[in-house]
Each structure stands twice: as structure tokens, then as C-alpha cells.
Design brief:
The protein is α+β, with helices and mostly antiparallel strands. The protein has six domains: 68 residues, Phenylalanyl-tRNA Synthetase, Chain B, domain 1; 119 residues, OB fold (Dihydrolipoamide Acetyltransferase, E2P) (Beta Barrel); 193 residues, Phenylalanyl-trna Synthetase, Chain B, domain 3 (Phenylalanyl-tRNA Synthetase, Chain B, domain 3); 74 residues, Phenylalanyl-tRNA Synthetase, Chain B, domain 1, CATH 3.30.56; 194 residues, Bira Bifunctional Protein, Domain 2 (BirA Bifunctional Protein, domain 2, 2-Layer Sandwich), CATH 3.30.930.10; 87 residues, Ferrodoxin-fold anticodon-binding domain (Alpha-Beta Plaits, 2-Layer Sandwich), CATH 3.30.70. The protein has 20 helices and 41 strands. It is elongated, with a radius of gyration of 39 Å.
């Protein structure tokens, strides 16, 4: 996840004068990575603060005026149509070379001196929208930007006067570091890395004045395990209005639109401290009671963005005595929101269970900056400083005052996490000698409390207390070594080749089989593909399978990824559909996991091998023969022997006449054959497709443990070609088995032709076989070969009624 961070804002808490480039480089080297920099000053180049001295009518235009303006070292006259111009007003003047958007629309245009209705103008007096600040300074049409509140003198650079001489960093923060997803967290990291002072001090909420009238507020937490802490404070005498420019500017640079001072305070604190907050209108809280509870099934709430959300049982909400006021950790409700007439507010700062927030956000399809942070897991001790900062800002920019004590619904006192730290162990892990004092200093600079436990030089031990903002990240002593190494600088570690014996890789039958399979299928001309592990309901139904055969994901990202695939075939058919327009015929394979449901257990996860061939329907059996040939070659490669193909029962997925099952010792390990035409039609596939889908682990279990070498016989074999006419439904596998049993002299057997037609008879087919006879110790005589053939003829005639074809 990424955060936009203002360099000027970071410098409020880090004493550093080396410039934005050096700051970004050092931070990226040892901490969160600065992916991009966005300097702000160049956007306002050639723009200055001006002060209106005189306003005169334009001689040739009723709606234009000539405005004499003080620019410090010189005074210039500009043509302007602003309707709110007054003498003494401070304005933004864009001189030649500045880039603006005309009337706030379109692309940036570079200003040049121009003659407007006969009067030359060297620049223009700008409206906020024309310089990209329309959201921060809303204005009516034809109104220019009034910056009379700015204390800078005329002629001052606009960027400098407005604090826009800044650089915005786009910083990548790893998921395990939500503390660095804030200005204070990043500043703490930067101070430790740069070796400079970190100036942040945790704020404190002042006690309410004794003279003030306390406004009652009750907080009840009905789900302490899901909401481990909920704090709230009442602020009255609040004046709702626009935020000052410095607040608006920081929100704007972080990508957040300013709304009003109270809402802006909650967003400001979220950016600065990493703690999402919310503000309620005190007078709209029923019974002045806040209840943290789960929603009742069917309850509804209208959120701040105008959506009507229907809630389900178990989803966490913040409610009053009668209705939900906010979806906890996600978004507030419209009915209790702060509005222009609000005088009393309630700031909330809470810690919600990350899993609960994630589930709710996905269920209601509402993802916000708040939910993004809660989903990463925030510490409950962070709620207080964030609330204190919100109170501080409310007093400063909204005239608020505390109207009661802080309500604090807390599950249990916070217990600090402590680990033993051994510098010698850290050196062993890092691989370089670092002074113990340096190690302790690095840990302290990151907020850890380091206390000596043993003073012995070689066996020094420390007790390290983990700060609350790192408790979800630090899990043991090894993590201290990682923190020390990165702050010390991985670039400072010596570059040495490892010494010692190279570890021997432990053989893995599955990995070896995967590698062998990939090489074989690539050599056969097949291209490897990778499909998603998740499939849709429609893909399962198109394959003719029941939804119960697949595992449904509880919180799918979309309807296209609702189920975990029970086999690789839906993905393969989708791949064919997507590619057939570009490649009318093709061959590909995939080696990936499939997931089968098991009652009350984790899924049965297996590795499958799929090979597919598709194309126009020219030859009815061509694709089936090819995929069957690939399988048989694959079996020989893997060392799988014996008859493994079996007749396949009725299936809605496979072609009834051109598909077979693969079974080893009674256990089905796969299917191969042509896909049913109806399935292809449902997927929108033209032509034919044949697929092999094999359970790789099942195949490995059936392989011979050792493949033995058999020398080639020095004696020539006796070769014969025979064709037998048999019944159409006779299976070749059964016939081949009978041939092998009939003669012990048979060395090899191969089917080379199948014929149906004239001279054979209806319901019959001719199977032509290559037969090879041999013995390892001698050459066979013609009589021995003839006898073997007679034995085969008798066996086939008795078992299948086979007749030798003339």
C-alpha cells in the first residue's frame, strides 16, 4: 500500500536540512521506499503575490477592467474580468511563462503577453480554478482568488507565500507496517535512519473547565473482543466552516478533498497519526448514548456517500439507542453527520478487529481510507494520542472546547510486550560486527525501550520493550536483528561470497515429476499456460458439474472468482474460447493445483496435469487419437506400465464415444478424451477439443520405484502383421491383453490400422496389428513363430469371435 506524504509536513517532526532528494534516497535505502517524487513549486512557476492599487474601466469592453497591481519591485497593469476585485486586495498574478487552465478547464496553457481589446496585458490575475486550487478555494464564475489573508508582501513567489514550495513523496509501505502509514510513523523512521532528532511529542487531552456545563455521553461496548477500545469526547461551542489553508493544503497534497473544519480534522489526524476517526453531531445521537454492537439482520443505514446499506447479522456498527450511526471502521451515517448548523460534536477514536472490518467492507462493497487502515491491524493504545490531537486541532481551528470527560470503553489494561535481546545473536544473524552501544541506539531511535540485563561482554543480554505501534510486527529476537541491519544499512554490510559446503537439495518426487512433465509436453509442441485458481459459478455449470463439487469462497473478490476449481478443465475451455479467434488451432498444457471439498477439513489440494488440443472439426477422431498418443508416450516416459485405460461411464462433460478413464489398481487418476459438443457450445467454442486431465500424485504413487535397464537382444525378432475382424464394441485394450496372454514369445504389439467399410460387414471392424516375437537367448525358428500365431488366433477366436482377415 502507498501513502502520499508532504516533505514539509515530515520536517515538522524531523530536524533535517539535506533536501528532498537526499531525504528520499536515504529513507528508501533503509526503510519504506519512495517510489516517486512530485515537486509542487514548478506548478506555480512565474506566479507571484500582487496587491491591487487601482481599478479602471477597459476602454473597449464593458465587462473587463484595467487593474494596476503592485508586484513589489515593479507595478504592472493587467486586463481582468474578475467581478470581486477591490482596491487593496491581494491576488495571484501569473506572469508570462506561467501555466494555467483557462477558466479552470482543459489542458495547461503557457501564458504569453497578449493584446486584449486593444490593451496589452503582460499576464493575468487568476481565479483559484485556473491554478488548480478550485476545490480548496471554491468561487463563483468570474471571481478571482482573494488571498488578502496572506501575510506575504507583494512580489513574493506564490509557491513560497502559500507553502507550496514542497515535494510530495509517493511512499510504498509494506502491509506489516501500518505504523509507517502515517506522517508521524514515517518521521520516526526517517529520524532513526538519518540519525537526526525526532521532535514529535504525544499530545494530552486537557481537563474540561470547571465553569463549563458538562454534556453527558454514555458509551457502551457490547462486543469487547471485536472492539478492544472505544474512546469518545464531547466538544461544544464548535463553529463549522472552512479549514485554514495549511490544513486544506496538506489534505490536498495527500489526495483528500477538504470538506469543513471538523471533517478535515478527522482526515488530518488519520493522515498524521494513522488512526481513522469520526465526528458525530451530538444533538443527533439518540439518548446521548453510543453503543458499539453487531447489526441486526436487515437493519439499514444511509452512509455519508448517499448509499442505502442493508446490514447483516454480525457486522459491527456504532449505534445510538435506536439506530446505527456508522458502519464501524468503514464509514459514518448521514443522519448523525456534522452539518453547517452543528454546535456540539463527538469525536470517536476506536480500535476494531481487522478481520471484522475487512469482512464488513467487502460485504457492503464499501472500501475507504479508514477501512484500509483498520484492515491492517491498528494498536489500541493509538486511540488516545489521536483523540488528543483532534481535540487540539478543534480548539485551534474550530473554537471548540471540551464539554465532558473522555469516555473510554476498554477491554483490559494494555500489557507491554518484552523480549530478550542478545547482541551476539544479532551479529551472528547480520554477519557483521556492530558495537553493542550502536545496536541499542538504533533500537531506541525506533521507539524501543532497551534495558540491560547482563553486563558480561561476551554474553550481554538486554530486555527490549516493544512500543505499542510495533506490537503486531515484532514477534521475537530475530526481528531486532532485522531492524538493526536495515537502519545500519544493508549497503554497509561486506559483500562476501558464502563459504562452506553447498547444501544438498533433498529430492522431491513431485517436483521431479513436474519438471519431467513440462519438458515432455514442451517437446511435444505444447505451450504452458497458467489460469486462475478461482472460477465462476457459470464455468462450473457449463461443464455440467454440480456446485457442490466445488468449494465456494466466503468473501470472493467478484462473481468471476467465487469458487475454487475442482479440476483444470473450466480454465482450459475458457482459454480456448479466448484464443480461438487469434489461433484457430492450438495445443497447450497446465500443471497446477485443484481443490476438492472435504467435510469439516481444509480442502484436498492436489496437483493435476492437463494437456489440450483444439481446432476445426475436419477429422472426427484426430484430436482423440492425438491426446491418447500423448498420454501413452507420457506413460512410457514416467514408467507407468500395464493397461490403465478404462471405459468411461456416462458423463455430461465428455464425448460418449471418444473418451476414456485412467485407472491404476482400481483407483481413478484421470480422464482423457474429446469434450462433449454441448459443453463446447456452452463455452462458445467452435470445432472440437480433446483434453487429458491427470492427477499427478496418483500417477506417481503407481510408478515403479526403480526403472531397470534391459539390454537389446542380439537376436533378430520375427515380425508378422495380422488383421482381425471383430465386433464393433470390442475394445482394443482387452484384445491386446488376450494376445499377450496367448503367447510367451510375443515381445511387442502395436495397433497400426482400424478399418470399417466394404468387405467387413455391418457392426464389425478390422484391427491390424504389428507383432514381434523373440527370445533373449536364440533366434526363433519359423515353426515356433507360426505356432505362436496359431495360439493367438485360437485365443482371439474363442474370446472375441475374431476372424483373421484375408
Amino acid at each position: 500500500m502507498n501513502i502520499l506524504a508532504s516533505y514539509n509536513w515530515l520536517k515538522e517532526y524531523v530536524v533535517f536540512h539535506g533536501g528532498a532528494d537526499v531525504f528520499a534516497k536515504r529513507l528508501s535505502l533503509c526503510g519504506p521506499s519512495v517510489e516517486r517524487q512530485y515537486p509542487q513549486a514548478p506548478l506555480f512557476e512565474n506566479m507571484v503575490i500582487g496587491q491591487v492599487l487601482e481599478i479602471k474601466p477597459h476602454p473597449n469592453a464593458d465587462k473587463l477592467r484595467l487593474v494596476r497591481t503592485d508586484l513589489g519591485k515593479k507595478k504592472m497593469e493587467f486586463v481582468c474580468g474578475g467581478t470581486n476585485l477591490t482596491v487593496g486586495m491581494k491576488v495571484v498574478v501569473a506572469l508570462a511563462g506561467a501555466k494555467v487552465r483557462w477558466h479552470g478547464q482543459g489542458d495547461l496553457v503557457e501564458l504569453k503577453p497578449a493584446e486584449i481589446r486593444g490593451v496589452r496585458s503582460e499576464g493575468m490575475i487568476c481565479a483559484a480554478g485556473e491554478i488548480g486550487l478550485g476545490e480548496s478555494f471554491p468561487h463563483a464564475d468570474m471571481e478571482i482568488m482573494d488571498v488578502s489573508w496572506c501575510k506575504s508582501k507583494p512580489g513574493t513567489s506564490f509557491a513560497k507565500a502559500m507553502g507550496l514550495d514542497d515535494t510530495v513523496f509517493d511512499i510504498e509501505v509494506t502491509t506489516n507496517r501500518p505504523d509507517a502509514f502515517s506522517i508521524v510513523g514515517l518521521a520516526r523512521e526517517a529520524a532513526a535512519i538519518l540519525g537526526v532528532k525526532f521532535t514529535w511529542k504525544e499530545p494530552v487531552i486537557p481537563l474540561p473547565s470547571r465553569t463549563i456545563r458538562v454534556k453527558p455521553l454514555e458509551v457502551r461496548n457490547a462486543v469487547p473482543k471485536t472492539c478492544t477500545r472505544y474512546q469518545a469526547v464531547v466538544m461544544d461551542n464548535v463553529a463549522i466552516g472552512p479549514s485554514p489553508w495549511w490544513v486544506k493544503n496538506r489534505l490536498r497534497l495527500a489526495g483528500i478533498r477538504p470538506i469543513n473544519n471538523i471533517v478535515d480534522i478527522t482526515n488530518y489526524v488519520m493522515l498524521e497519526y494513522g488512526q481513522p476517526m469520526h465526528a458525530f453531531d451530538y444533538d443527533r445521537i439518540g439518548g446521548q448514548t453510543i453503543v458499539v454492537r453487531t447489526a441486526k439482520d436487515g437493519e439499514t443505514i444511509k452512509t455519508l456517500d448517499g448509499q442505502d446499506i442493508r446490514l447483516s447479522d454480525g457486522q459491527l456498527v456504532i449505534a445510538d439507542e435506536s439506530r446505527p450511526m456508522a458502519v464501524a471502521g468503514v464509514m459514518g451515517g448521514e443522519e448523525s453527520a456534522v452539518h453547517p448548523d452543528t454546535k456540539t460534536i463527538v469525536f470517536e477514536s476506536a480500535c476494531f478487529d481487522p478481520v471484522s472490518v475487512r469482512r464488513t467492507a467487502r460485504a457492503v462493497n464499501l472500501h475507504t481510507d479508514s477501512s484500509l487502515r483498520f484492515e491492517k491491524g491498528l494498536p489500541e493504545e493509538q486511540t488516545y494520542p489521536a483523540l488528543a490531537r483532534a481535540v487540539e486541532l478543534c480548539q485551534e481551528i474550530a473554537c471548540g472546547r471540551i464539554a465532558g470527560p473522555v469516555a473510554d470503553a476498554h477491554q483490559a489494561p494494555h500489557r507491554k510486550i518484552k523480549f530478550v535481546f542478545r547482541p551476539t545473536k544479532a551479529e551472528e544473524l547480520i554477519g557483521v560486527s556492530i558495537p553493542k552501544a550502536k545496536m541499542a541506539s538504533i533500537l531506541k531511535s525506533l521507539g524501543f525501550i532497551v534495558s540491560p540485563r547482563s553486563g558480561l561482554a561476551k554474553n550481554a543480554r538486554y530486555e527490549v520493550t516493544v512500543p505499542y505501534w510495533r506490537e503486531r510486527d515484532i514477534e521475537g529476537e530475530r526481528d531486532f536483528a532485522e531492524e538493526i541491519a536495515r537502519v545500519y544499512g544493508y549497503h554497509n554490510l561486506p559483500s562476501l561470497l558464502p563459504t562452506g559446503e553447498i547444501p544438498v537439495e533433498q529430492p522431491s518426487p513431485v517436483l521431479a515429476a513436474e519438471k519431467k512433465t513440462r519438458e515432455f509436453l514442451r517437446g511435444a509442441g505444447y505451450t504452458e499456460v497458467l489460469n486462475y485458481s478461482f472460477i465462476s459459478k457459470e464455468q462450473i455449470e457449463r461443464c455440467g458439474r454440480d456446485l457442490e463439487s466445488a468449494l465456494r469462497v466466503a468473501n470472493p473478490l467478484s462473481a468471476d472468482f467465487e469458487y475454487m476449481r475442482p479440476n483444470l478443465i473450466p480454465g482450459a475451455l475458457s482459454t480456448i474460447k479466448e484464443n480461438q479467434g487469434f489461433f484457430p488451432e492450438g495445443r497447450f498444457f497446465e500443471i497446477s493445483n485443484v481443490y476438492l471439498p472435504r467435510p469439516s477439513e481444509l480442502p484436498d489440494e492436489r496437483i493435476h496435469v492437463l494437456a489440450a488440443v483444439y481446432g476445426p472439426a475436419n477429422d472426427a477422431e484426430a484430436f482423440f487419437r492425438e491426446i491418447k498418443g500423448i498420454f501413452e508416450s507420457y506413460c512410457r516416459l514416467m514408467g507407468l506400465e500395464g493397461d490403465v485405460l478404462r471405459r468411461l461411464g456416462e458423463s455430461r462433460l465428455w464425448h460418449p464415444g471418444r473418451s476414456v478413464g485412467v485407472s491404476v489398481e482400481g483407483r481413478a487418476i484421470g480422464v482423457l478424451g474429446e469434450t462433449h459438443p454441448a459443453v463446447l457450445k456452452r463455452f462458445g467454442i467452435d470445432g472440437r477439443a480433446a483434453i487429458m486431465d491427470i492427477d499427478l500424485a496418483g500417477m506417481i504413487a503407481a510408478l515403479r520405484p526403480v526403472q531397470r535397464y534391459r539390454p537389446v537382444s542380439p537376436f533378430p525378432p520375427v515380425l508378422r502383421d495380422l488383421a482381425f475382424v471383430v465386433d464393433e464394441r470390442t475394445e482394443y485394450a482387452a484384445l491386446a491383453g488376450a494376445v499377450k496372454e496367448a503367447s510367451g514369445l510375443l515381445k511387442d504389439l502395436e495397433l497400426f490400422d482400424v478399418y470399417r467399410g466394404a468387405g467387413i460387414g455391418a457392426g464389425k471392424k478390422s484391427l491390424a496389428l504389428h507383432l514381434s516375437f523373440s527370445q533373449p537367448d536364440r533366434t526363433l525358428t519359423a515353426e515356433e513363430a507360426d505356432k505362436a500365431i496359431e495360439d493367438i488366433k485360437k485365443a482371439l477366436a474363442a474370446k472375441f469371435g475374431a476372424v483373421l482377415r484375408a
